[in-house]
Automatic annotation (TrEMBL):
It comes from Klebsormidium nitens. This is FAD synthase. Gene3D superfamilies: HUPs. GO terms for biological process: FAD biosynthetic process; riboflavin biosynthetic process. Pfam families: FAD_syn (PF06574). Signal peptide: none annotated. It is an enzyme of class 2 (transferase). Residues 149-209 form the FAD synthetase domain. The lineage of its organism: Eukaryota, Viridiplantae, Streptophyta, Klebsormidiophyceae, Klebsormidiales. Its EC number is 2.7.7.2. Pathway: Cofactor biosynthesis; FAD biosynthesis; FAD from FMN: step 1/1. The keyword Protein biosynthesis does not apply. GO terms for molecular function: ATP binding; FMN adenylyltransferase activity.
Length: 370
């Protein structure tokens, strides 16, 4: 099945284009580079597509609140989905069916400066599926609680909400978790209040990185707690080895690629504006990354295909397209991509020209900046 990734209203640009610096013509199986010119499609149809995409909701793949009844909720922000967050899910899996509960509208209510998330919404389900291997074979699901509905609650009232309205049977949180109005409650209070309501409460100690990648010049052990802040700081200095150590996986970047606004005919160099980034990139520099394309939008129809056993399977027609390794350059305005394989460019051209759904470019970084 394909991946549905609703695009955020504020980050999508209609200026995506393949630059005219490198037109490639296949000659004897090799690419000959010639100069040509190209402009982004600014037609009414392209503008209409982008307007439609801006109406999509920037939301995680979440379950309704009522589904957490009888389950165990992990409490936190979960921006990075790092190894510390995974430890909460591991502990929750020993108690019952686990959910990652965080708050929506928190930044707006508290007046925090808007910034890109560390993990794009479209990548989050795959990360959680990876965690199934350490969570009893079951992937955690995410659930969002509107921060506006709980901001004024005392610590006791918040625990009452979890016990009565959400009907959870257990709570898992980190040892530095704060909750309630003005963060009045701490982990010890969460444990005592939960126990008083008959809830199973587990407090998980901070997870620290033990490898050398995140310790330039030597970081004291007490300062090596894994956190979303450290992930963001490592991205800002282009230290992707450290990011991988904190996340337990390589960093991925999602970029909106509105199909009808891209002139892709046989080009080996793709340029996309930073406004199309859906999550936090590494700092300015040149990197190697594995590229793939997935489609956005709900599937409109099913397509019948035969698998290797000759059996008919139903597909939504939004399968991923692997584009292989490429060199990517991030500057103050754009993301530039030099494809190593001309054949992959031709596949990308075909995909964008034939798909009715807007596409999403996914980059998995495999090297630090150069």
């Amino acid at each position: 099945m394909g991946t549905w990734c609703p695009l955020p209203l504020r980050h999508l640009s209609n200026t995506a284009s393949l630059t005219g610096h490198h037109r490639v013509h296949a000659v004897g199986g090799r690419g000959v580079v010639r100069s040509s010119a190209s402009k982004a499609d600014s037609s009414p149809s392209a503008k209409g597509l982008l307007d439609d995409l801006r109406k999509e909701v920037d939301a995680r793949d979440t379950v309704p609140l009522q589904e957490v009844a009888g389950g165990v909720v992990c409490l936190g922000k979960f921006d990075a989905l790092h190894l510390g967050h995974r430890a909460l899910a591991e502990r929750a899996a020993t108690i019952g069916h686990m959910f990652m509960l965080s708050f929506s509208n928190m930044a707006a209510v508290l007046g925090w400066e808007p910034r890109l998330p560390l993990v794009a919404s479209c990548h989050r389900p795959a990360v959680l599926r990876q965690w199934a291997s350490v969570c009893g074979g079951i992937a955690p699901r995410e659930v969002l609680l509107d921060f506006r509905s709980v901001r004024s609650l005392s610590p006791a009232a918040f625990v009452d909400l979890l016990a009565d309205q959400l009907a959870v049977k257990g709570i898992v949180a980190g040892d530095n978790y704060r909750f309630g109005y003005k963060a009045a409650g701490d982990a010890a209070q969460l444990q005592s209040l939960g126990a008083a309501r008959g809830l199973a409460v587990a407090i998980v100690g901070s997870v620290q990185d033990c490898g050398p990648a995140c310790a330039p010049g030597g970081i004291p052990l007490a300062d090596r707690k894994i956190s979303s802040t450290r992930v963001r700081e490592a991205l800002q200095r282009g230290d992707l080895q450290c990011v991988e150590q904190l996340l337990g996986r390589r960093h991925q970047l999602a970029v909106g690629l509105p199909g009808s606004s891209v002139n892709i005919a046989s080009y080996a160099h793709l340029k996309l504006p930073r406004l199309n980034f859906l999550n936090e990139p590494p700092c300015l520099g040149t990197y190697e990354a594995l590229l793939s394309i997935i489609a956005t939008g709900r599937p409109q129809q099913q397509i019948s295909r035969r698998n290797e056993n000759g059996l008919t399977q139903e597909s939504d027609g939004l399968d991923g397209l692997e584009l292989g390794l490429a060199r990517v350059r991030i500057d103050v305005e754009n993301l530039g991509i030099d494809f190593h394989d001309v054949g992959k460019v031709e596949q990308l051209e075909h995909r964008i020209r034939t798909s009715s759904a807007p596409q999403l470019l996914s980059l998995e970084f495999v090297s630090d900046q150069r």
